[in-house]
Amino acid sequence: MVEDFSFMELNEIKDDDPIEQWKETKVSLEDQIIANGFVKAFQKRKNSFKGITQQIATDEICELAKSQIGFGQLAVSKIVKRSELPANALTRDAIKLWIEKQTESKAFVA
Questions:
Q1: DSSP one-letter code for 97
Q2: Is-contact 73 58, C-beta < 8 A?
Q3: Taking CA atoms, which of 19, 37, 94, 107 is between 20 and 30 Å from 48?
Q4: What is the mean pLDDT of residues 29-53?
């Protein structure tokens, strides 16, 4: 039997739901800084000769993670479009490391 959750409001999602790893729509200053850094690095690389897609960024971030993380192309899209970051600390660390690697790259020119 499939349950219909279409009637639920966003704030009705249980806090302990393991599938729901995204924070509420309020974006903290720290998240804004990380998201802005990600978007800047992503756009610079997208416009460079190297190029990038959301899937390439996803694959690279997953490779940088110290363990398996639940991070996919949709996550990159949420960061780019809505500055939403996953709550998982390992995933956030991998994203920050990816940003650092992009800014160290010769293709990244501020």
A1: H
A2: yes
A3: 94
A4: 90
pLDDT classification of 13: cutoffs 50, 70, 90: very low
Q: Which residues of 79-109 are buried (b: 16+ CB within 10 A; e: fewer)?
A: bbeebbbbeeeebbebbbebbeebeeeeebe
Which tokens belong to 42? 């992503």
Rounded Cα distance, 46 and 39, in Å: 10
Question: What distances in angstroms separate CA 58 from CA 26, 65, 71, 95, 97, one per listed residue?
Answer: 24, 11, 7, 9, 13
pLDDT at 37: 96
Residue type, 105: S
What ranges do the domains of the chain cover? 25-104
Between 81 and 14, residue with greater pLDDT: 81
Q: Tokens 């804004």 sit at which residue?
A: 32
